[in-house]
Automatic annotation (TrEMBL):
<protein>
    <recommendedName>
        <fullName>Secreted protein</fullName>
    </recommendedName>
</protein>
<dbReference type="InterPro" id="IPR015943">
    <property type="entry name" value="WD40/YVTN_repeat-like_dom_sf"/>
</dbReference>
<feature type="region of interest" description="Disordered">
    <location>
        <begin position="281"/>
        <end position="301"/>
    </location>
</feature>
């Protein structure tokens, strides 16, 4: 990414440069020189050594539901890119990055994948179509003709984080400028009605990157600047629990957070910056912290 692009987009943009492979073997971390792959133990504990895929720094990063492809967003280039992964979760050799340019919407900062259907959700620059639903063909290529849009309150598309309920029933959209969490009820095909969110909840901290616990007990989100991480409970129907304020996780911070993710087994929560990775152990059933958080330096290329 060029320096002038970084200055134009600003440091306030929500990024989601952190993602766990669906089988739990790798933690993908976007960093200034490419994508770092951190191996994870059986329980989700980060291990060494890490590996790099150089050349692209994503704003958003997500694997599809099969774990066969990795998708990244590049707002300055107005592109969505993807790479085929082998059965170990590594980029396939001899196959480069494929490029897709959506029209008319321009991809913004974040991307999320439906957990069971070939569908991506993209945050856009266009304020009137702030989130797009993009279907994927059998070879993983996005289908521009089948793209639909969701209408999201707020006026800063780049300042939105995305996460999907593990059962595929709801899409969660953070709006830090509006200090709000939006929830969309999803249909069986993974799409949503275009008349707005099912629920909008005002929250005091400005929610940036977010993720959902696999037991569907809660949503975690990070404040972009302070890096404070919060847990907000979910009701059994997938909506935000009533009359329960977000609780800050003690000692778990990632200032200028670039992403947040949870292990598919619900055992660990991760939050990244451009230089560090914060990790805390979780109860796999409730999503509450069950250990003391630690902050690890990311290896430098």
């Amino acid at each position: 990414m060029r320096r002038d692009d970084e200055q134009r987009d600003g440091d306030g943009d929500v990024r989601a440069e952190l993602h766990v492979h669906p089988d739990g073997t790798w933690l993908y971390v976007g960093e200034p020189h490419g994508i770092l792959r951190v191996p994870l133990g059986d329980d989700g504990r980060p291990e060494a050594p890490a590996e790099w895929t150089p050349g692209i720094r994503p704003y958003g990063l997500a694997a599809d539901s099969t774990g066969a492809r990795l998708y990244v967003t590049d707002p300055p280039g107005q592109r969505l890119l993807w790479h085929v992964l082998d059965n170990t979760g590594r980029p396939s050799r001899g196959v480069g990055w494929q490029v897709f340019t959506p029209t008319p919407a321009e991809p913004g900062g974040t991307v999320a994948a439906h957990p069971s259907r070939p569908l991506l959700y993209l945050a856009n620059r266009d304020e009137k179509a702030a989130v797009s639903c993009v279907p994927l063909s059998e070879d993983g290529r996005p289908d521009d003709g089948g793209t639909t849009t969701l209408w999201v309150r707020g006026t800063a598309p780049l300042h939105k984080g995305l996460a999907v309920h593990p059962a595929g029933t709801h899409l969660y959209v953070s709006d830090p400028q509006g200090h709000a969490l939006n929830v969309f009820a999803l249909n069986a095909d993974g799409r949503a009605d275009s008349d707005g969110p099912s629920l909008t909840r005002q929250v005091h901290p400005a929610p940036g990157p977010l993720t959902v616990h696999p037991a569907a007990s809660c949503v975690y989100f990070a404040e972009r600047e302070t890096g404070a991480v919060y847990r907000t409970a979910l009701a059994p129907d997938g909506l935000l629990a009533q009359d329960i304020a977000p609780e800050q996780l003690p000692g778990f911070t990632a200032p200028h957070c670039t992403g947040i993710a949870v292990h598919p087994r619900g055992t660990y929560l991760y939050a990244s910056t451009t230089t560090t990775l914060a990790v805390t152990e979780l109860s796999p059933h409730t999503g509450h912290p069950s250990g003391r958080p630690v902050t690890l330096p990311l290896p430098r290329r």
